[in-house]
Specification:
The chain is of the alpha/beta class and 342 residues long. It contains 13 helices and eleven strands. Strands 1, 2, 3, 4, 5, 6, 7, 8, 9, 10 and 11 form an eleven-stranded mixed sheet that branches. Strand 10 and strand 11 form a beta hairpin. Helix 3 packs across helix 5.
Length: 342
């Protein structure tokens, strides 16, 4: 399926909170240098201590990325809740509160529901990350949680852009967060592990966020515009009907292509990629390990390159998401240069 956004939306801010990349000056450098040996996450330095007690790791990571993205876009996140009825939030996560849910289920199985913690149970809500962000920053338009596998942040970006386009909101905060934990490691191992097993997952734990706005909203407040989101296409990696994807790629041959390492796009359109080998951007195995955050991390990587004046990034980009972690659903979206709005 393909849809052309009638009104492209502006990306006006971005940020990330990835403990394994702490101290790195931007995602391009972080992906090039790899993980640091001793990841450090201190949310109180960014958020202050108030209100953090009993918040689980996914929520804390997402709050840090969200606050930094809002500040980067020029919104005063430190001035208290904005109470903005035109500002919404969509969060993409597959692993966010998995440990909390599984822990509560284990307690009920072993003992009784009365043995569960009244402090933990609110964190078992499927929408806990999105609702916490909405409450803390006063984002009063729609708030949603997307848990759709490796295409999660791609889906979140498309839904947020369409919410703006259809006048459900004027601006949206899009956040993606994935977390490590015993439940996830057990799931990947195919057997129940205990805390002393020492098994490590290959997941890249962290959160990323962007602020997107309608063109009118960005112009009214004279916001810096890093890029524009325009066309997108969905495809099943094993589907026979791929013409919409081919058509989108053909229309944007001059743009760099971001390729997740387990990319579904290259085998679907080999001729184009042979012709444009110099225009591909492959962020390597760490991107594959980001699971549902892949599309959003690629977008932020592109935005940071464009801000730095990279010549190829200033042409825009074609970014692929999904089609990995044994998921067959995937998509591609087009990023136009932000200068097109100025």
């Amino acid at each position: 399926m393909m849809s052309k956004l009638q009104s492209p939306v502006a990306i006006t801010g971005s940020a990330w909170e990835i403990p394994s990349f702490a101290g790195r000056a931007g995602l391009p450098r972080a992906f090039r240098d790899g993980r640091i040996e001793t990841p450090l996450f201190q949310p109180e330095l960014s958020l202050g201590k108030k209100g953090l007690r009993y918040k689980e790791r996914a929520t804390l990571l997402a709050l840090c990325a969200a606050k930094a993205a809002l500040a980067n876009a020029g919104w005063p996140a430190d001035a208290g809740p904005m109470a903005d009825t035109d500002f919404g939030v969509i969060v993409a996560s597959n692993t966010g509160n998995l440990d909390t849910v599984c822990g509560a289920a284990d307690t009920i199985r072993r003992e009784h529901v009365d043995a569960t913690s009244s402090m933990d149970l609110p964190n078992a809500s499927s929408n806990v990350v999105a609702s916490t962000i909405a409450i803390r920053f006063g984002l009063k338009a729609l708030n949603l949680m997307i848990c759709s596998g490796s295409s999660a942040s791609f889906d979140a970006l498309v839904l947020a852009a369409n919410a703006i386009r259809n006048a459900r909101a004027k601006r949206m905060l899009v956040v993606s967060v994935e977390t490590d934990g015993l439940a996830l490691r057990s799931l990947l191992a195919g057997r129940r592990l205990d805390a002393d097993n020492g098994n490590e997952t290959s997941l890249l734990e962290g959160a990323s966020a962007v602020v997107i706005e309608s063109l009118d909203s960005a112009r009214e407040r004279k916001a810096r515009t890093d890029a524009l989101l325009s066309e997108y296409a969905f495809v099943h990696t094993d589907a026979a009907e791929r013409q919409p994807l081919y058509a989108l790629l053909d229309r944007h041959l001059n743009k760099p292509r971001y390729l997740p390492g387990a990319s579904f796009v290259k085998p679907l359109h080999d001729q184009a990629f042979r012709m444009l080998a110099g225009l591909t951007v492959d962020l390597g195995p760490l991107l594959d390990q980001s699971y549902g955050s892949s599309a959003l991390l690629q977008l932020i990587h592109h935005v940071e390159q464009a801000r730095a004046g990279d010549a190829s990034a200033l042409r825009g980009a074609v970014i692929a998401g999904g089609g990995s972690w044994q998921d067959r659903r995937a998509g591609v979206f087009v990023v136009e240069p932000g200068a097109a709005l100025q």
